[in-house]
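User: Quick sanity check before I run a bigger batch. Here is a single chain. Can you write out its predicted 3D structure?
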Amino acid sequence: MREGAASFVVFDRMQPGDLFAIERQPSQARLLGAEIDAVQWDEADALAAQPVAWTARHGGRIVAVFGVAEQFAGKHGVAWAVLAQGLGTAHLAVSRKAAEVVRTSGLNRVDLIARAAQTPFHLKGEAGLRWALDAKRASAECRWARMLGFAPGHVLHGYGAACETHVLFEWFGGGHG
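Assistant: Done. Predicted structure follows.
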């Protein structure tokens, strides 16, 4: 299945090799908490087999791979994306498609975990979110999550293999409650 989009960005179902072929941005070293270089072919195959898994190409070059890894089939998933170095003019089309696939996923809940500004450990709850998402220090990943329609939920101190601060963003579909 092939879909065209504005700015001549073409979206195809993700193939496992796309995850290894993308020339990713330096900030895209991890995928769902794992070093991308450590991701095995069977893991890439599992992501590509998910109901929501897309590759974006601009001028024949892979500029993004993204999707939703379902944790509970048809109910809950975790959004993920790897963006290419020099995404440039394809950014808007990729962002629109990513937001669309979350909205139309049919899932009740989709989480997105974004690297954030290092937040003082004593700041919890709303105070921690205000710090991490302040306009002066909000990471590009957090700004993108909000652009896609996700709402900030929680600061995750010391998260992942590198023990960094992240923000858990949430999106709720029509079937939650």
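Strands lie at 2-5, 9-13, 30-31, 34-35, 52-58, 61-72, 76-83, 109-115, 151-159, 164-172.

User: Great, the batch can go ahead then.
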